[in-house]
Amino acid sequence: MMKRSLAMLGTMIFLASLLAAPSWAQDDSVATGTPVAEEGGETTQPVLDPEDPIASMTGPVDLGEAVRRGLTYNPQIEAARFQLSGSEYGRRSQLGAFGPTMTAGYGYERLDREPSTAGRVTGSRDRWAFSLNVTQPIFRGFELLSRYQRAKIAKEQAEAQLSNAELTLVRTIQTTFLDLLKGRMDVKSAEDAVARLTSQLQVTQAFFDVGLRPKLDVLQAEVDLATAEQTLLVAKNEVATQTARLNTLIGLPLEYPTEYVGELDYLPFMRSLDDCLATAYRQRPDLQIGRKSVEIAQQDAKITASDFYPDVDATYKYSQSGDSPELRGNPRNRTGYSSWSVGAQASWTFFEWGKTYNAYQASKENVAKIEAELANTRLDASFEVKQNLLDLQEAADRIGVARKSVEAAQEGYRMAVARYQAQVGTNTDVLDAQSRLTDAETQLSSALADYQKALARLYVSMGVRNISLATE
């Protein structure tokens, strides 16, 4: 009898393993997310040592390399990957709910006296017992299916959240990198201004020494030189700040001497607004997250509605007892010391004073709420794309104007210096021309940086991970 029961138990365990096989058949390594589509239809994964960010430093770091390193070493992305891993285990957990649950018990008790019937002893004071209960859910009002589908959607949502975190990091790294390049251009402009003002101060001092210029001209030149030197110090501090910020974003120590390379340049963008919007609606992770949130809310409504239906379970029960740990009955009863049974059980809570009905209605209203939020997210996404495209076009126009302004300012400064050295111009003319030239150079660097930052924001707003900001 015992052998037959154990054989039946082994059969049920084998069937349960078959039921869980779809989960076990998956790759043991939990997915770390689906890469966001990059410009040109390619998906580039960083090939770096994830354990040692410093050891993998092999040379200069350009914009694309900085983004790749950030996607590998930034803790924010690591946190999103852990969230994705957890959602996969949650899906597997819900898959396991389809299988049977098995509970076993083994115990001992000692009675205060030997059991007897009509003065005849029928057993021992020592009682040992073993029990096994197997319950297989047959129908739970679609609750198990809905919970599994919800967990599966939650994993897909976690993948979109990882993609969204990656895009956010890409935008942050690109913006910081471009601010660094702009800072370097500002440093170069400030250094040139200091050199020009130093030269002008020397000329003015020489003219004053021979009585050709008043002391006021020397003082004006000294003040403007000091102002330019302060501007240079501010520009250098900005470069150091952006360098430290970039180091932290790509997983390097603050003071690591990273060699960041690159230049601000104009890269024409030819895609139309309709094309950008279509790409955004298709690829933006936040829209995917919103759609998954709607699906999760719909599954929650189904889970709530499962209380309208009865629960049906199949059961198997086995028990064995005896007066010794071997569970072989007792000397007075060597038969009938084990038993088993199979059956099915249905239970239905069919009235709760509207509790289930109102909970279901509330879940339906929540679905409608999340759908409305998704519609608002879509509108915000379309506005963001339009705004970034307008900012891009504005910066492109400013670049052309700023380049002409720099050319004119350079020529104006050259002429002012020549007039001053020929004693037909004033020191104020030279200083004003120098100030206009510095302003023109600053406007050009700002326009170039604003253009590429708008380009970076535009690609992110379309859901495209363009790590090097290459245009079509």
TrEMBL record:
The family database entries (Pfam families) matched by this protein are listed as: OEP
Please name the GO terms that the record assigns under molecular function.
efflux transmembrane transporter activity; porin activity
Enumerate the SUPFAM superfamilies for this protein. Answer: Outer membrane efflux proteins (OEP)
Q: Where in the cell is it found?
A: Cell outer membrane
Q: Which UniProt keywords apply?
A: Cell outer membrane, Coiled coil, Membrane, Signal, Transmembrane, Transmembrane beta strand, Transport
Regions annotated as coiled coil: 148-175
Query: What residue stretch is flagged as signal peptide?
Result: 1-25
The ranges of region (Disordered) come to 30-54
- Kindly report the protein's main subcellular placement as a broad class: membrane
Tagged with keyword Transport: yes
* InterPro entries hit by this protein: OMP_efflux, TolC-like
* Any GO CC annotation of this UniProt entry: efflux pump complex
Please state which protein family the record places this protein in.
Belongs to the outer membrane factor (OMF) (TC 1.B.17) family.
Spell out the protein name for this chain: Outer membrane efflux protein
Name the species this protein comes from: Alkalidesulfovibrio alkalitolerans DSM 16529
